[in-house]
Write a structure and sequence with these properties.
247 residues; alpha/beta; 7-stranded parallel β-sheet; 3-stranded antiparallel β-sheet; 6 helices; 14 strands; 28% strand
């Protein structure tokens, strides 16, 4: 069985966010980029575990991005993926990225496509579902556990107050959430091997994006806390009506 793992290139979580061009574009100057944690820690590591258990025979990474993202892809290879594909295009939105992944997967016969539940920069949680829709495949969202028996996959995901277990035939697309696997750190052998592992570059299909960014805005952050005495109920009610905001 072959597994395709989609990875995204995202700013490190300690990045100080800034915007340019009238707040319509993220300023990447001086920013350190990493593999999206949900893609790396859960989707990729679980794929590697399945390979180590002799359930899967090959794990391939796919990333939609420009040449400056190849260091991120090599990091994924250093963890143990066999090879990688970079679709040479800048992904303007989730549909465009998903279409590139689906087009590649359709012609390469992957039994399983794994993605992280969302990216930490956009938090859209939509690429996996769109890939499944474009390929007419079953989709399991926010899975926290994944097992394979023959041609069937069994997955779990959390519900309010419980866990739901679902089963479906391969091929399948799955988005992976916390609990799927334990994060790994690449060792020196893996880092050295990653330098020579195959990284193919293919051109995007030129599909048009469906959305555009009008502007970004930073979170205003915390405001001043107002302290009231316990007997000042009228003032509390007034402030809840006039100043309190639901975030």
């Amino acid at each position: 069985m072959k597994i395709l793992v989609a990875i995204s290139n995202v700013p490190d979580t300690t990045t100080k966010i800034q915007f340019t061009e009238g707040d319509s574009k993220f300023n990447s100057q001086g920013v350190t980029f990493v593999i999206n944690p949900y893609d790396e820690w859960y989707a990729l590591v679980r794929a590697l575990e399945l390979k180590e258990a002799n359930v899967a025979e090959k794990v391939t990474l796919i990333h939609v991005g420009l040449p400056d993202s190849e260091a991120t892809i090599r990091k994924g290879l250093s963890l143990g993926a066999d090879d990688a594909v970079r679709v040479n295009a800048e992904g303007p939105d989730a549909f465009f990225v998903a279409e590139q992944i689906a087009n590649y997967a359709k012609t390469n016969n992957y039994e399983m496509i794994l993605v992280g539940k969302e990216t930490i920069n956009y938090n859209g949680s939509s690429v996996g579902a769109i890939v499944a829709g474009l390929m007419d495949l079953p989709f399991i969202s926010l899975a926290t556990k994944l097992d394979l028996t023959g041609n069937k996959t069994t997955a779990e995901y959390d519900l309010d107050g419980g866990v739901q277990i679902v089963e479906c035939d391969l091929p399948v697309v799955i988005s992976c959430a916390k609990g799927m696997a334990e994060p790994r750190i690449p060792n020196m052998r893996g880092i050295m091997a990653a330098r020579t592992k195959p990284l193919a570059v293919i051109e995007g299909n030129g599909a048009a994006s469906l959305t555009t960014v009008k502007s970004y805005a930073l979170n205003p952050g915390r405001t001043t806390c107002k302290m009231l005495t316990e007997d000042n109920m009228d003032e509390l009610v007034n402030l809840l009506h006039t100043e309190a905001k639901v975030i």
